[in-house]
Design a protein that fits this description.
Elements (H helix, E strand, L loop, with lengths): L1 H12 L23 H20 L14 H11 L1 H18 L11 H8 L1 H60 L5 H12 L6 H12 L4 E8 L2 E8 L11 E2 L3 H9 L3 E2 L3 H7 L5 E6 L6 E9 L7 H14 L3
Antiparallel strand pairs: 1-2, 1-6, 2-3, 4-5, 5-6
Length: about 325
Amino acid sequence: MQDGEATSKGRGATAAPDSRQPDARQPYYGLQVLPPLTAVLELAAIMAIILAVDFIWPALDIHSLQPSPYWIPVLLLSLQYGTASGTLAVLAAIGAYFAFVTMPEQGVGENEFSYRLRLLAQPILWIAAAVLLGQFRMVQISAKRELVRRVSELETQRETLADYANALRTRCDVLERAIASRPLQSGVMVLDALTALRDPAGDVRLGVQQLLGSAFPASSVSLFARQGGGMHPIVSAGSESGALASLFVPAEHSLYRCMVTDKARVSVLTAAGEAALNGQGLAAVPVIDPATHRVLGMLKLERADTARVTDEGLVRLDVVAVALAPL
């Protein structure tokens, strides 16, 4: 029991933390609203390269190339980080577009709407590409993070099951060693005690004491002989030394009349049995001569674990009384 309690306490001490409490060590599985720092750094690097090329080779007029070099940060960040980073790239591209690109003149016969639409064609396409491609990338990122979350949960469950299996293995090893260290099983000890009682040269009193001790371990059991005006204890197992004489049951006691007159088995499990025992023990059965059917004495259980005070325990007491009757 102590090993079991220690094992259960050990498992309780290593219980999993409350999932409602945030843990800084666990990765973040949700979608980010703001662009990550790496996206900002990549955007700054690409824009710096474009402006550096324009500064070093002004004759190249890189801002007027078709397709526009500002498609690079828009497509790269949208496809790699999603809508938020793609939108940031679009804002940077639009700002550089209107700051550094030389706007064409309005053509002859071209109305204002057509002219503005021609100027804003590139920014509109950038916005559309960032939103469309970014959303596709966001779906992929969401699916990937969901798979990562499931893998993390499975790893946690695997570690928990492994720890629990190791704890069970340790517990089984402890129980196996405890069982292997037992000198003899109680059934073998009972058979040995009965065998010793058949030896004419053996000590009958000692043999009876060994039989009672092996048949009812961790209990106090006494064998009484009917002599004169009461039941006199002759052998006891589990009782303190010197307390045998105090177990005498006089003829006036209700337990004596129940044993001799009624020849009934009694225990504290029933109201009538508890009244008959009247504080003399937990259970008692008569020892009857199988030839004359005369009550020779009784076998009484004074102290035992609660789990042993059952109807089956009363039957075991009666079986031992039958085995002792010929003695």
